Amino acid sequence: MYAGDLLLKNVPRIRELATQQAATITLGQLMRNTSSDPQSLLKQAQWLHKALPIRFARRLNDFLQLPYIVVQNRQFHAVMDTYLETLDAVASFPKLRTFKDESAFHDVMVEQLQRHAEVVPLISEGYWEVRQMYPHIRLDDFLDNLFTTRISHRILLENYVNAHNSHSGGNTGIVKRDLSPHKMLKAHSESLIKLTRSVYGCSPQVEFRGNLACTLDYIPRHLTFVVQEVLKNALRATVERHLPPHTEPWMVTLPDVIIELQKGDYYVIIKISDQGGGMPKKMQNEVWQYGWTTAEEEEDITLDPSTWPGSKTNAAKRKKELCGYGFGLPLTRLFAQYFGGEVFMQAIPGHGTDMYLLLNHLKEGAPSTEMVDPSTALAETENTSHSIENAP
After folding, report:
1. Domain ends where: 154, 169, 184?
2. What pLDDT, on a 0 to 100 scale, did the predictor assign at position 5?
3. Can you give the pTM of this predicted structure?
4. 325 near 294, Cβ under 8 Å?
5. DSSP string of 219-263?
6. Structural domain that includes position 305
């Protein structure tokens, strides 16, 4: 079915579902109700079968109210089509009654998870293109709602899909117990150093300090995302600060980027410090807006040709991978705040930046898992709004 036909088919469904009460659930409830036995899997699937169409319909309703120039952007349109396909796949799925029904539903959810893998890069690139033509367009509220519910969707779906794996030892649903930030950060820092070196011909090293043996219960993918976005910024800023134009990279000695780990009663604190020159106070407020970036599309790139294959176009793509489209920091804060954490910036103009990531321990029964997360709060607000709108 063509995307246009799929939209026409689902517009009445979107309008109806978007006004229905959305079921809410905390991470603690999800952890307590996650099990790999067939009966539990069937109950999880039945809950998702009812809850997901409402959640996707509300975001699609937001898409339909965007300015025409935004919806017609190729990347935004592709994401809207993906949401339409998921809504249609779930809402059209027959009522789940048997374990065989649940198994078929599981296969559909795995497929839909894969379809949504490119949502963030597509929206990032699309928003950049729209604002190149219409700089006055700002979609921060839309993007906050979209990405908040996206975090929720992926937690629900990945938790359900992972529950089918009876060998997921060390996990409580999607949460991994006793996760080592040091081990994870060391592995990711090595890959980011290679990426930085492929772009500039050199890279700072990363030094780890503090309580390297500390652990926390957390969602591995979330930890990976928040750290790699901040660390990419630190590596890039350090190189660009200390590598003069037209200088051979091997001639420059770069200061290390420092990652310090500490464990508190409620948080694990990750401090990432660089000597990348810092930024003016005005910029410190702007960096939390979607689409804000210091990277220029046509910026000249000084490279050691031996460090990258192919053309300078290839190098520009690698630089874009390192710099992004200005979504890294706002999404990092969104991920951290989702379970009551936070991100702080302390920048000293002319010297460098300290970024503090405060991540809550996600143990069952802890305040961070029983609190009303942003997605639940959003659903409750929308439930109240629709109740008022539909009142006689």
Report:
1. 169
2. 75
3. 0.87
4. no
5. -HHHHHHHHHHHHHHHHHHHHHHHS-TT--GGG-PPPPEEEEEEE
6. 176-360
Task: Tell me 166's DSSP state.
Answer: T
Pair 92, 295: CB distance under 8 Å = no
Distance of CA 385 to the CA centre of its chain: 27
When pLDDT is cut at 50, 70 and 90, the band that residue 298 belongs to is: very low
Residue matched to tokens 């660009």: 240
Domain boundary among 114, 145, 169: 169
pLDDT at position 278 over 90: yes
If asked whether residues 181 and 164 sit together in one domain, one would say no
**Confidence band of 16 (pLDDT split at 50, 70, 90):** very high
* Domain shared by 188 and 89, yes or no: no
Query: Which class for 24: exposed (0-12), middle (13-18), buried (19 or more C-beta within 10 A)?
Result: middle
| pLDDT tens digit sequence for 32-43 | 888 889 999 999
* Segments of the chain assigned E as strands: 171-172, 175-179, 206-210, 216-218, 257-263, 267-274, 342-348, 352-360
**Residues 136 and 63 grouped into a single domain:** yes
The answer to whether residues 241 and 188 belong to one domain is yes
Q: Is residue 389 part of a domain?
A: no
Q: Residue 386: what pLDDT?
A: 64
Confidence (pLDDT) at 300: 43
Are 269 and 332 contained in the same domain?
yes
Q: What is the mean pLDDT of the chain?
A: 88
The pLDDT tens digits for 349-362 are: 999 999 999 999 99
Same-domain pairing of 12 and 152: yes
Owner of token pair 């081990």: 183
Question: Is position 371 within any domain?
Answer: no
Distance CA 189, CA 202 (A): 14
CATH number of 183's domain: 3.30.565.10
